[in-house]
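Researcher: Good morning. I'm working through a list of sequences from a screen, and I'd like to move beyond sequence-only analysis. For each chain I'm collecting a predicted structure so we can compare shapes side by side. This is the next one on the list. No need for commentary yet; just the structure.
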Amino acid sequence: MVLQSLAGLPAFLVYFCTGIVAVMLYLFVYLRITPHDEFELIRNNVSSAAVALGMSLLGFVLPVVSAIVHSANVVDCLIWSVVALIVQVAVYYIVRIPVPNLSGRIAQGEMAPAIWLGLASLAAGALNAASMVYTP
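Model: Good morning. Structure tokens for this chain:
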């Protein structure tokens, strides 16, 4: 019975590692497009940076989860993960339109811009995840 349960372990490892690689790629890209240094701000206890980055990461991970569930294979999953990354980068630039100094305000510790960015990222991620439907 245990061996039967572990039969899916190789597929789990492949998709889990694919998800980790997608998250690392997302963080690599996202941390370079924002003018503020999120991890430096987080190390300095700036909650707004943690909120914005954390919710943005969730907004990215939601469609990656959907891609893992709905993909035909790992390559398909990676392609849809890149689509999710592009959507989240677009969201970052779009939410800056009504809040011009978004990054500066987050770096100063203001929560309202961080929550705005984070929730917009989550909303886009949820829409993105729901839109990923595999059709053979």
